[in-house]
Amino acid sequence: MWIAIGSLTVMGIVLGGLLGVASRFLAVEENPLEEELKAMLPGSQCGQCGYVGCAQYAAALAKGEAGITLCAPGGKALIETLSKKLGVEADLSEHEEKGPEHAFIVEDLCIGCTRCIRECSTDAIMGANKLMHTIIVDACHGCSKCVKVCPTDAIIMVPIEVTLRNWHWPKPEIENTHSNPEVGHAH
Ligand code: SF4
Ligand code: SF4
């Protein structure tokens, strides 16, 4: 019995040592710029940029392989932030700022092919083969990927209705307190 315990202890020490060495030499170095860019992105993982998720888009941005206007949920504010961070000019003249949207299925056009269900990464579509499908609005993050795969154009994107549950104050403008002596003297 003592031999078995001894062997297991030695094996544990050797394997632990090997794992420690491996983690040191095989560790993947993180790119600080990539991490910073990832933190700037909305994190909705919607894939509208053409990458699998926000981390992959951030990696491509850090390598200079992706444009800075690809993130639809981030909108104009994100484009401007990325432009400053990466020192890249962005043409915003054609940029159309849209509010949040969700998918909507026009029931009469749905043939129940289930293609949209397979495309949705958030399980926001309910339905079955040859039956009408419908969108669970609360689970839809508006990536519009389902729109592209529907063979009958049954899916459209519609603005999210503003209610007391989702309304919020607009973000305040940042004022330059150094150039405006009136600011910052409230009593
Ligand atoms: S329902 Fe469509 S728009 Fe909504 S998350 Fe799923 S794939 Fe995206
Ligand atoms: S892809 Fe279009 S037709 Fe097919 S199930 Fe979805 S909504 Fe219906």
List the helices and strands and how they pair.
Layout: H1 2-25, H2 32-40, H3 54-62, H4 75-86, E1 101-105, H5 115-119, E2 125-126, E3 134-135, H6 145-149, E4 155-159
Antiparallel strand pairs: 1-4, 2-3
Helix pairs in contact: 2-3
Q: What general form does the structure show?
A: extended
Percent helix range: 25-40%
Number of helical regions? 6
Which structural class should the secondary elements be placed in?
A: mainly alpha
Question: What percent of residues are in strands?
Answer: 5-15%
Bound molecules: iron/sulfur cluster
Low-confidence stretches: 179-187
Head-to-tail CA distance between termini = 80 Å
What does this molecule look like?
The chain is mainly alpha-helical. Among the domains are: 32-86, 3-methyladenine DNA Glycosylase II, Chain A, domain 3 (Orthogonal Bundle), CATH 1.10.15.40; 101-159, Alpha-Beta Plaits (2-Layer Sandwich). The protein is 34% helix and 7% strand. It has six helices and four strands; from the N terminus they run H-H-H-H-E-H-E-E-H-E. The strands form two sheets. The chain has a two-stranded antiparallel sheet with strand order 1-4. Helix 2 (32-40) crosses helix 3 (54-62). Mean pLDDT is 82; it is low at 179-187. The chain binds iron/sulfur cluster (SF4) (2 copies). One iron/sulfur cluster is lined by residues 105, 110-116, 127, 133, 149-150, 152, 154-155. One iron/sulfur cluster binds next to helix 6.
